[in-house]
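Customer escalation, tier 2.

The customer says the design service returned an amino acid string that "doesn't look like it belongs to this structure." They asked us to rerun it and document both sides in this ticket. The original structure tokens are below, unchanged.
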């Protein structure tokens, strides 16, 4: 069964766009599936799991959407300031960072905040969770790189990087991570925790995405996208993706095809197919003009046989195919916990039980006195 592919983009105009990608050989057609205008300020971050979409905004809120039920799930209110970064860990937890210096860990079971960590003195600019779920990295405007032990919910290591980094990201297998400062990418090895090399891009970097464990796609304040080998620190490929600067880039593999999705300030979203064996110029599969100034981008994939059956299937009603649909409001979720963050939940629950016990004892003492 073919996987369903949806490109999701947030913009300055406060809207989340969803484009279903219809695939026919070398021709991919992004078709407007939905638009959602829930935020009251521009979108600053978007993240996906198998089931949920999370969007963050300058309005200090996080909105959750259930892609399988096609409903709006609710709003998360905890941060004070722009939501700067969002990342799901599997289907069970969401990590958020914001201008208030906090990193929050949310459970997708009841959408409650399990842990709130004062991570940085000032703006948290980027967060990345290790594939094991046991570690996380964060960078902020306090010019530090911090490693977090998610099992114990505490800081494990602080590195002064002397400059303000705006991106940190683990590689797909978690054997290395990269830290981006302006137009420079520093590559670190997990095993040695040491700098293994640096890559310098032509312009300030706005977005990165790992293509493989060693190959990194880089977009910046220009119309070009470059692929770098992080082991050899050299450029493998450069191609002109847009007429204006590229705001976001996202790489993934589907049905043995290596795909790069790019988005630009010119409003266009483009899908490219790359032959990673020879690294020739990628083939443009399809594009769509959103008519908006895009700020963030991601891709949602799901097997069609996992989608709920609905009456009035789109395939049976081609005349409605291009209509955009709003989300409706509802609530629900699905559990499954990892060792790394499960312990945080147990700790929080213990603290809550201890507080209730203390409150009960205080109430009894007051009753005796009266």
């Amino acid at each position: 069964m073919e996987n369903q592919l949806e490109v999701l983009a947030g913009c300055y105009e406060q809207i989340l766009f969803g484009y279903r990608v219809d695939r026919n050989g070398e021709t991919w057609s992004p078709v407007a599936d939905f638009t959602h205008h829930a935020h009251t300020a521009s979108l600053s971050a978007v993240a996906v799991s198998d089931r949920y979409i999370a969007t963050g905004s300058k309005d200090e809120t996080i909105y959750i959407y259930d892609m399988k039920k096609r409903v709006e799930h609710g709003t998360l209110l905890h941060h004070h300031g722009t939501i700067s970064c969002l990342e799901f860990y599997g289907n069970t937890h969401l990590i958020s960072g914001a201008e208030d210096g906090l990193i929050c860990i949310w459970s997708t079971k009841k959408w409650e905040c399990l842990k709130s960590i004062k991570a940085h003195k000032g703006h948290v600019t980027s967060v990345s969770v290790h594939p094991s779920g046991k570690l996380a990295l964060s960078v902020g405007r306090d010019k530090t790189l911090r490693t977090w032990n998610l099992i114990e919910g505490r800081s494990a290591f602080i590195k002064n990087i002397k400059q303000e980094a705006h991106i940190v990201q683990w590689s797909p297998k978690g054997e290395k991570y990269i830290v981006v400062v302006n137009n420079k990418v520093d590559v670190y090895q997990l095993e040695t925790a040491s700098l293994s090399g640096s890559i310098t891009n032509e312009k300030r970097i706005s977005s990165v995405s790992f293509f493989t464990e060693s190959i990194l796609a880089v977009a910046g304040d220009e119309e070009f996208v470059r692929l770098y080998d992080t082991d050899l620190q050299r450029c493998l490929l450069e191609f002109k993706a847009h007429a204006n600067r590229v705001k976001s880039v996202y790489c993934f593999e589907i049905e043995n095809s290596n795909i790069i999705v790019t988005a630009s300030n010119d409003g266009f979203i483009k899908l490219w197919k790359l032959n990673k064996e020879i690294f020739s110029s990628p083939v443009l599969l399809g594009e769509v003009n959103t008519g908006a100034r895009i700020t963030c981008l991601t891709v949602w994939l799901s097997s069609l046989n996992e989608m709920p059956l609905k009456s009035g299937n789109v395939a049976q009603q081609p005349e409605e195919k291009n209509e955009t649909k709003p989300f409706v409001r509802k609530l629900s979720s699905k559990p499954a916990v990892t060792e790394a963050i499960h312990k945080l939940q147990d700790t929080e629950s213990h603290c809550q039980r201890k507080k209730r016990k203390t409150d009960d004892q205080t109430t009894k003492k007051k009753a005796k006195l009266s």
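Tier 2 assessment: The sequence is consistent with the input. The helical segments are 339-369. The first strand starts at residue 3 and ends at 11. Sent an explanation to the customer and offered a walkthrough call.
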